[in-house]
């Protein structure tokens, strides 16, 4: 039997997590619209369906723990505290963006939030997370590094190199696999000799756990426990969160590789209404309050889009900036 | 003053930088307890301990990637890749992350790291242990590429590279590791990155060469009125020193051991053709390795630009 939410977190924190989930969802839906209008160009990978992972995980970390992620990371940046309007402006390529319109959708960075990307190369972030964790341990600052990655990245060499290093040097890295079952159009079962990603760590003597990634509180509890274990033990841990993306790999993906029935099944597990129902059932919020939160998110996003639209483009001369010091 | 070879000069630079700045850490395969396959890091493990001289697993991609993370956190990592030919597994980390973290994050995350690696012909092994693929790395905006040509400038350039705010690939010509000794002062001195030096003044022809070819060119040009330029930093390239020299001499020969096609000589020739063609009296000649993998043992002597080929190029261009 599930424990009551109030036994886990105070009401205000639960409500805040719900706000973050709704904001993340609405942000992505808004991005889709802006992409269709041609305001966002290039590739756009949306997080809809996976919100419980970013929100639950971020809540389980300390504010100054490093977060690295892959290219489906808008929600992670926003949940960490990036302003939606500045993330939207970044996606538009405007100079008011969080990387002044030079990083774009796949490369969000903010040192003030200890948020270090944003990696478009699958598995590129693993060794960098190891290096950060080495430095954090070297400096004895008590920070850990949360390294998010997808199921596809577990087949990259850097995954194995980095697990080996993290265990060998006893580094405070929390690896978080967001297993959404597909690397673009190839399912985990068709790409991985051992589809249970969390079991792969046994070759490196790293403990691991699987969690149901559509339940924000389950993710929160798993990450919180694991993050403290990593911090105290100064050793790596891996969490595999089972989740699903409701949209295609990117906006350019028609998603022909999965059945409508499968998508509908997972949509019936949508983490946002599931959490809403629990909040109402346990009388933490009323339906009217939750609808108010959604309306507030829509206002925030209307402002974000307007801000991005009205923001200036970078000057041509800025193409030369920040290549070298 | 002490006479040191290049291995000793690099070792001294590392030791002094590590003593000066506790953020400087070394990492790489066998750099610690073993002292490095070329003994470049010998004694540093004993002096600074395993937390600052780190023996890594055989994982080139993780070596460079971890250095990016360390640098972003505020350390000053100096990574060693055992041979330039082993760096290709780490190409991704160097090119897609080290080179671009600054641009992507608009300068708020940076990667002030050095990747040192022996390179070029010198130990009569074939291909991967012997090749000169510096041009790949000059095609990476965001990364600086430095090649010393002797013990003195190796120390000064490495100290500058460690202090540089950008990622630096530091290519150490294996042929020169123990070939020559020079006076190398103790204590700090830096040579600016991105600045070439005139290794020998002259008036009739400009010769550009770096690394071990510089040493070979210096001998080959004896008896010629040749001005020899040692770029020391290949990227960003010091075009000003190059153009000033060519405008004076009107002739240019570029010598490199890398294969001819798309080697750095092509870029240097194009720059001169574009910026100084009216000063040229004759064709620009490239003396380079052939477009083949570096061969084994005796055939290397055939592969490398020989003093005869260098002098033939000088004779040809001086006819104009």
UniProtKB/TrEMBL annotation, chain B:
Family matches, as SUPFAM superfamilies: Thiamin diphosphate-binding fold (THDP-binding), TK C-terminal domain-like
Record protein name field: 2-oxoisovalerate dehydrogenase subunit beta
InterPro entries membership: THDP-binding, Transketo_C/PFOR_II, Transketolase-like_Pyr-bd, Transketolase_C
Keywords linked to the UniProt accession: Oxidoreductase, Thiamine pyrophosphate
Keyword Oxidoreductase set for record: yes
Obligatory cofactor(s): thiamine diphosphate
Organism name: Geobacter hydrogenophilus
Entries under Pfam families matching the protein: Transket_pyr, Transketolase_C
Source superkingdom: Bacteria
